[in-house]
Amino acid sequence: MINRRRLLILAGAAGASSIAAPFIRPSWAQANTLKIGLLLPSSGTYAPLGVAITRAMELYAKQQGGKLAGRDIVFVKVDDASEPAKATENTTKLISGEKVDVLVGTVHSGVAMAMAKMAREDGLPTLIPNAGVDAMTRGGCAPNIFRTSFGNGQVGDATGQAMLKAGIKRAVTVTWKYAAGEEMVAGFKKAFIAGGGEIVKDITLPFPDVEFQSILAEVGSLKPDAVYSFFAGGGALKFIKDYAGAKLNEKIQLWGPGFLTDGIEKAAGPAGDGVKTTLHYVESLDNPENKKFSQDFMAEYNVAPDVYAVQGWDAMQLLRIGLEAVGGDTKKRPEMFAAMRNASFDSPRGPFKLGTSHNPIQNFYLRELRGGENRLLGLAAERLAGDTTGCKMT
Amino acid sequence: MSLVLVQILNGLQYGLLLFLAASGLTLVFGILGVINLAHGSFYMLGAYLAVTLTAQFGDIFVALAVGIPLAFVFGAAIEWLFIRHLYKRDHLQQVLLTFALILVFKEVQQTLWGNHPLSIPTPSYLSSSISLTPDLGYPVYRFALMGICVALALAMMFVIQRTRVGRLIRAAESNPEMVEALGYDSRILYRMVFAAGVALAAAAGILAAPIESAYPGIGDRVLIISFVIVVIGGIGSIRGAFLGALLIGLADAFGKVFVPEFSSVLIYAVMALILVVRPSGLFGRA
Question: Which residues form the signal peptide (chain B) (predicted)?
Answer without folding.
Answer: none
